[in-house]
Each structure stands twice: as structure tokens, then as C-alpha cells.
Specification:
The chain has 14 helices and 20 strands. It has helices spanning 15-24, 62-65, 84-101, 122-137, 154-165, 184-193, 212-223, 237-247, 252-261, 271-276, 285-297, 336-344, 356-368, 441-469, and strands spanning 4-8, 28-33, 49-52, 70-73, 106-112, 140-145, 148-149, 168-171, 178-179, 182-183, 201-205, 210-211, 228-231, 314-320, 323-332, 389-390, 393-399, 403-408, 414-425, 428-439. The two termini are 46 Å apart. Residues 476-485 have low confidence and may be disordered. The chain has two domains: 4-308, Rossmann fold, CATH 3.40.50; 314-473, START domain (Alpha-D-Glucose-1,6-Bisphosphate, Chain A, domain 4). Helix content is 36%, strand content 22%. It is globular, with a radius of gyration of 24 Å. The protein is an alpha/beta fold. The strands form five sheets. A seven-stranded parallel β-sheet has the order 3-2-1-4-5-6-11, with helices on both faces. The chain has a seven-stranded antiparallel β-sheet with strand order 14-15-20-19-18-17-16.
């Protein structure tokens, strides 16, 4: 009979990759999630047993742990507020106490490295405390890892955006602190191979250590970029974190703990890992970067750091191989159907909800230079069909109650698309709004970056306006249904 495994954090970066690999190994997998709707579009959705529950609600944990032999603890509350450490402490205690009652044989926890000297950051101290709670109550293996490097990971994205966007970097002195990064593939290997092992206590894992400066330099070399890094004698971790939050898509609530965590050296003592797992030889940082870049190029990123943000609003800009994507998301309490109807109503007499005067001005300019302008309007106030015109956009794709993609037909120095997607989440819907642009030559690049400050404001306000507009469609009139095909 297959070992019965529970995965908490299945909507997160590591958990979302671990589940399909456990299934491939033949394990019987159960997942504990707050909102099962967030898993509907995963390829493995129908292959796992799903239990709805919340670690902060102890009464919901018994069904998840009943009959389970091995459980992965892959959750943390970072980014949820200033009291995240208290929340993590209570969640770990709730889980451990319930797992004791069901006589769990093995708890596998992925924590973080702690510095050998100096005071650990609040985030790393909290991760260590969670590990201590689990080990005090349960037979446990606690893997301690440094920055995880993989397509879509927060640590990789931070290095990537800083290096891609800043040809000259003025950095604080912690740029030369040593750190032991580890590729996501190796993390998954350790986690999976632990299922059949006895609990092992604390095991530190990581590749060969290098400095944060080396991490950016090696990334630049892989991308063929020339970068100048100038070190200053100041420490200023919080100021540096705020700068990271400004330059990269990583929000401040994540950037601050990430940067504070590497103020002190984080070097793994991998001697136990080498003894216990002699068949795992962690790939180098450079190889992990190379693989991450390949996955991005192939558009095969399995999970992303922002996947477990709950109801938080997110913002993401990507400039990759000539295609620029600005993505923002916002959670609404309304159904996907209502959100879908809201963004399908854009254009025509409804307008674009915000800055309509600017849209009209853009349409007038487009008309003057030979484009279609806004006067084409739209065929129907809420119904959209592939191939139809919506102002100066062409409907390229429609997925009922989920997605609308518009291709720009206005005169621009490149190709542009505007895409909206409605994904169920936490009893409501997360609205994804994406603006894609493929610039043509220098004119196209200048066009994007000169208008970017204006576009950022307009598209941010549009996302909020669409979230509010969904309320108008929350209880649609049965006599006036939206049809798409």
C-alpha cells in the first residue's frame, strides 16, 4: 500500500512543485488548503485528496491528518503583517498538537538557515522557532536552506531584476556576505527522498557558498550583461530592502525580511546532508540560474513566489527576450463570472472606467496618424466574441468566465496586448490584469519606458475599478445572460 502523505502549503512555491513529483513516485497524496478552488487549474487536481482547512483553526486539522504517515510542513505567514511570527508560532503548535493525537510518524519541515554569529532576522528567527516547536512535539526532519534558486522563486527574481535593470549598482557592505543558495530541484530531491527515511532532526542543505555580489555577477555573465557593482561601507538593510521593493516586483513586505536575512553570512554546514544523502550532489548556483533562465524562456514556470499571497495585491513587471509584461493582481469577493462580465464590458459606451479623457485623447491621436481610433466602439455592451473589435483593440481570445485577451490595433511602435483573467481564490476571485508589449526597435523601447509612469497609474486604477465594477454583475439578471463562444 502506498505511503499516505499530507502536503500543507500546496499553493505555495515549493509545495506546488512537490505534489506532482510525489504523485510520480507513487505516493498517495492529500493536500490541506484553505480554498480548494485555487487548485482547480492544477494538472494534478484530480489525482489528490483535498481537505479544506486552516492551520489557525485547530478543529479543521483532524480530517487532514487522519491516517497520514508522513506530513510536509511548508507554510509560513511572512507577508501577512507585523505579527507574522506570532501567527507562525500558533499555527505550528496547532499542527503539532493535532499530529501528536493521530500519531504522525514523520513531519518534514523546510526552514531557513540561521547565521553562525550575530542576531538572526525576525523572519529567520521565526522559521527556526517553528522548527523547534515541530521537533519538540513530533518525529521531525527539519531541512534548513538558504536562498532557493529557481524560475519564479523570490530570491531568484530579486537577483534577476536588480541585475537586469541596474547597469551600475551602489550597494551596502553586506553585498560581500557569504551565503549558501540551493537550486529548487535539489530542495525537492531532499524532500522526496525523506519520505522513506526515519526522522533525521536538523539537516542543513546548500550548494557551494558564494557572496551576494557573486550571485549577481554570475547571473549577469549568464545573460551576457556587463554590470558595475560599487560597495559602500554602510549597512542600511532596511533602506536597501525598500530599494529592492521599488526596483523589483518583490513587495516591501517580502523584500525587507529577504534582505535583512542576508545581512549576516548564511553558510550551510552540509556534512550531515552529505552523509545522509550521498546520492544528492547539489548543483552549483550558476547551473541553477541557467536552468531557471531556460524554464522562463520556455514559458514553463511551474510556480511563482506570489502564488501564496492570499488576498494581497500583487504587481509584477517582466522584461524578457524583447517581450515586456506588466502584471498586477487584486482579489475581489465576487465570483469569477461577475469579474469576467466586468472586464468584458470595457470599451464602447462604458469606456475604460478610469482616465477616460486620456483614452479618448489616445484614440484621437491614433485616428490622426491613420489608426482606427476609439470610434469603432463595440458590437454589444457586455458580450464579446473572438475576432470582434473593441475600440482600437481586437478580441484575440475568450475563455468563458475566465479570460479575455485583446490585441492592439492602434498605431504603436511594436505589438501590444491587454489580457484579463479571473481565477477563483479564497471564496472570491483574483483578477489578473496583464499588459504585454513587444517593442519594435529603439522607438518601441522608448515608447514603453516614456509612457510607463502614466501606464502604471492608469492600469493600477483600472484594476481597482474593475474589482469594484464586478459588484454590478454579482447578481446578474437571468433574462440578460452573457454568452461567449
Amino acid at each position: 500500500m502506498a505511503t499516505r502523505v499530507l502536503v500543507t502549503g500546496a499553493t505555495g512555491y515549493v509545495g506546488g512543485r512537490l505534489v506532482p513529483r510525489l504523485l510520480q513516485q507513487g505516493y498517495s497524496v492529500r493536500v490541506l488548503v484553505r480554498d480548494p478552488a485555487r487548485l482547480v487549474y492544477r494538472d494534478w487536481y484530480e489525482q489528490v485528496e483535498i481537505v479544506q482547512g486552516d492551520l489557525s483553526q485547530p478543529e479543521t486539522l483532524a480530517p487532514a491528518l487522519e491516517g497520514i504517515e508522513v506530513a510536509y510542513y511548508l507554510v509560513h505567514s511572512l507577508g501577512t503583517g507585523k505579527d507574522f511570527s506570532q501567527q507562525d508560532r500558533q499555527n505550528a503548535l496547532n499542527f503539532a498538537q493535532q499530529a501528536q493525537r493521530t500519531r504522525l510518524k514523520h513531519c518534514i519541515y523546510l526552514g531557513g538557515l540561521v547565521p553562525r554569529s550575530g542576531t538572526p532576522s525576525k523572519h529567520l528567527a521565526s522559521r527556526a522557532e517553528v522548527g523547534q516547536i515541530l521537533r519538540n512535539h513530533l518525529p521531525c526532519t527539519e531541512f534548513r536552506a538558504g536562498p532557493i534558486i529557481g524560475s519564479g522563486s523570490a530570491s531568484f527574481e530579486m537577483v534577476r531584476y536588480l541585475t537586469e535593470r541596474l547597469p551600475i549598482m551602489i550597494t551596502p557592505r553586506w553585498i560581500d556576505r557569504m551565503v549558501s543558495p540551493i537550486g529548487i530541484r535539489d530542495v525537492l530531491s531532499y524532500l522526496i527522498k525523506s519520505v522513506e527515511r526515519e526522522p533525521m532532526g536538523v539537516v542543513e542543505i546548500g550548494a557551494e557558498p558564494l557572496t551576494f555580489r557573486d550571485m549577481m555577477t554570475q547571473y549577469a555573465e549568464e545573460r551576457g550583461l556587463k554590470r558595475l557593482i560599487i560597495r559602500t561601507p554602510v549597512l542600511a538593510p532596511r533602506l536597501a530592502a525598500l530599494w529592492v521593493g521599488l526596483v523589483t516586483p518583490i513587495p516591501n513586505r517580502l523584500a525587507v525580511p529577504l534582505v535583512e536575512g542576508i545581512v549576516h553570512s548564511l553558510v550551510a554546514d552540509t556534512s550531515r546532508a552529505q552523509t545522509l544523502f550521498p546520492d544528492i550532489e547539489p548543483m552549483s548556483y550558476r547551473e541553477a540560474v541557467r536552468l531557471a533562465l531556460l524554464r522562463i524562456q520556455e514559458q514553463a514556470v511551474e510556480t511563482h513566489w506570489s502564488g501564496a499571497l492570499g488576498s494581497a495585491e500583487t504587481y509584477h513587471v517582466e522584461d524578457w527576450e524583447g517581450i515586456i509584461c506588466e502584471e498586477r493582481t487584486i482579489w475581489t469577493p465576487y465570483t469569477p463570472e461577475a469579474v469576467f462580465r466586468a472586464f468584458c464590458s470595457l470599451g464602447g459606451d462604458t469606456g475604460w472606467l478610469v482616465w477616460n479623457w486620456a483614452w479618448r485623447l489616445r484614440g484621437a491621436i491614433d485616428k490622426l496618424i491613420g489608426g482606427p481610433g476609439l470610434r469603432r466602439g463595440r458590437r454589444h455592451p457586455v458580450e464579446v466574441l473572438p475576432g470582434e473589435a473593441v475600440d482600437f483593440w481586437r478580441v484575440e481570445q475568450v475563455v468563458p468566465n475566465r479570460l479575455l485577451r485583446l490585441r492592439a490595433e492602434m498605431k504603436v511602435p511594436g505589438k501590444a496586448w491587454l489580457e484579463f483573467e479571473a481565477i477563483p481564490e479564497n471564496g472570491g476571485t483574483r483578477l489578473f490584469q496583464r499588459a504585454w508589449f513587444e517593442p519594435r526597435g529603439l522607438a518601441g523601447t522608448l515608447y514603453w519606458y516614456l509612457l510607463y509612469p502614466v501606464h502604471r497609474v492608469i492600469f493600477s486604477q483600472m484594476a481597482h475599478a474593475l474589482a469594484q465594477c464586478a459588484a454590478l454583475f454579482a447578481e446578474p439578471d437571468p433574462s440578460h445572460q452573457l454568452h461567449t463562444r
